[in-house]
Amino acid sequence: MHIQSTFRASQPNTSPRAGVSDLLTAMQPAAVTLFPADAVIYAQGEAAGPLYLVEFGTVRLCRLTADGRRLVSAFHTAGEVFGFEAGSEHDSYAESVDGAGIRVLRASCGQQPTGSMLLLALKSLARTQNHLMVLGRRNANERMAALLLDLAERQGDGKVVHLPMQRNDIADYLGITFETVSRILRVLKDQGVIRLRSISDIEILDLAALEDMCD
């Protein structure tokens, strides 16, 4: 779905499902398709068109540079919609991280962008802008803190963050090395800021400390 209109929204609802119910009503949702871990949902350069709703699991959006390096530009979790493009082709490719259930949303013939589409596109744009600010103005420790806070808010728990993605995914998302990701998590654990429940579950013990790192 190409959203090229200029639009504004005051105080948008930031909950993952905000706008999704209206979008499902307005569009033609397909049945949920399961994409196993690392399966490609769409390719970079593929013709854009439908939107994609994450029913469960996690999706990563990646881009290959001219020299073959991978950049991870976004992670999408349950209740989030992705696939918005300014042009006619996808400028990145989408993959399932951990086995994701995806519902394809197709517009009816001649359908114009609805308010719910614009809201979701705005949320996606705002998240991208925030991530670019983190990459441009934060050091490695602050980038990790920002990621943990972002996921805690989006997952709705606030204390336990689930990290289904591999450490190399996190590294490519934050623009740091695999070793730096592991080192920062160890430092945060030793400082009593987090507790590593497992390789993929992190308990936030000192929320204020994480927030201070991002101030």
Can you tell me about this structure?
- This protein has 215 residues and is of the alpha+beta class.
- It has 2 domains: 16-130, Jelly Rolls (Sandwich), CATH 2.60.120; 139-213, Arc Repressor Mutant, subunit A.
- It contains 6 helices and 11 strands.
- The strands form 3 sheets. Strands 1-8-3-6 form a 4-stranded antiparallel beta sheet.
- A hairpin with a 4-residue loop joins strand 10 and strand 11 (201-204).
- 27% of the residues are buried.
- The model is unreliable at 1-14 (pLDDT under 50).
**Structure annotation, total helices:** 6
Give the beta-strand count.
Answer: 11
Order of helices and strands: HEEEEEEEEHHEHHEEH
CATH structural fold name of the largest domain: Jelly Rolls
Give the neighbour order of strands across the main sheet.
Answer: 1-8-3-6
